[in-house]
Write a structure and sequence with these properties.
Length: about 220
Amino acid sequence: MLILLDTANIEDIKKGIEYYPIAGVTTNPTIVSKEKTDFLKLVKDIKNVIGDNRCLHVQALGMKAEDIVEEALYLNKILGENIYIKIPVIPEGIKAMKILHEKGIKITATAVITPQQGLIAAMSGASFIAPYVNRIDNISGNGINVVKEISQLLKIHGLNSKILAASFKNVEQVHKASLAGAQSVTIPLNILENLLYHPLTDSSVDNFIKDWENVYGEGKRTNNL
Ligand code: G3P
């Protein structure tokens, strides 16, 4: 299982990689625009913070395959190792995926709403397929079912692409996506923190400390008795 951070906020990324087993960062044009800063500086800063061992997914904005290819080659060149170019599953995007795959560029197929979009992107060379779980749920679809069916399709047809489930609004969606066959999820820091939060865990820890300190003294720990 891989957990990626779905944010371009440097502070969240720093905190995320300090505390949690983060495999990489995903951005999209909306996420980047929230930071209201120079795009190239921002993505280079993110790259510097996460290093070469974590992956960075950056989206191309072109609406024609040729433009997407140009952007992808540019981003791949300036950002260096472990870069995935996010490309939406529109027809021009699929054409671009085929061209870029031939050139050895790593691709994440994005804005995936249906299982067949995911299948076609996988057949066109995308390494990751990103179904938008919450956006599907919001149009009265079933985001988790889409994850499940993409997982089945990849298995049935022997495709090596991985699912990078995206667009989450709560921990239950993340939990169900990881059970449904997603090999990776991308989530904002607050949802990652919510995955760990449980009041019973916190009260258990509080009680351990209280019971211990009643006997061994305030501030005492196993290594300073
Ligand atoms: O990574 C894709 C994701 O950012 C879309 O999420 O929350 O805008 O639906 P959201």
